[in-house]
User: What shape does this take?
Amino acid sequence: MTQTKHSKPIKQINASTIKQITPMTFKNYLLAKGFSKSTTEVYQKELLIYITWCDINNIEAEEATYNEVIGYVQKLRKQQVSQATIQKYLNSIKHYYNWLVKRNLRTDNPVLNINIKGIKRRILHDILNKQELEKIYFDYKNSPSKTLSKKRNEIIISLLIYQGLNTNSLKNLEVQDIKLREGKIHIKSARRSNERTLKLEAHQVLDLMDYTLQVRQLILNKTNKETDLLLVSLGTSSDLNGAITKLIKTLKKQDKKVQNLKQIRASVITNWLKNYNLREVQYFAGHRFVSSTEAYLINDLEDLQEDIEKYHPTN
Assistant: This one.
């Protein structure tokens, strides 16, 4: 573990302490969550320091209360450990208690409501849950307009909400990337993203079949365009920037919770993290690095409540 400039080391970890938390079992839990080997090792080391502190203070780590965890935080602060480092240690402890809850060794996680002030956090977006995302899609789809642009936009919205695509991925999709018989879509790699093949929802397959066989051809005929791109604008431009800008304005009028496409993608990724491990979500999102996926964990307020303005350790 890296110490801050002014921090002092806590007592060395002994063999009995290591045995207490069965590190291999905890390690397997972290790996199953999708954390890298190096991150897992760091979490284990930081957790062992906490367990040692508990042992020194005659505290059963598995049964530690909220106030006892706060005591550990206060100890770190007295050692002049930085706020950011304290929060980092708490993240390791949080995973430990999540692991204990999963094993039915306790029913709560005493770390969840602890927030360390003085840390600049990256609040990504106001996250929409799965039901709110699907409502955006179906409200738009069920609106009375039957224009070609609306039919195309239905495809755009469905790919945003069910596959979490960003603007660049949408603009670069080609007809051959849609595998209707397999019920899948292939997204090519880009400068900042990896390629991946994602499953389509059943209703998407039907809508994409109608779009590729009829609607898209009508758009091409109307605009005199020849292109392999899946999504075609109805204007003279070859890109979708104007169409997407108009679409977002429409969605914001339809639902006041909608902010922009980045918010929708962030919501999709955050919701994925509730049901899949980090490595799986990294693949779904096309992230080159798992750290990019980890950044979205802060949006999951059911698991991480660190951004609620509650400052408990006052001294």
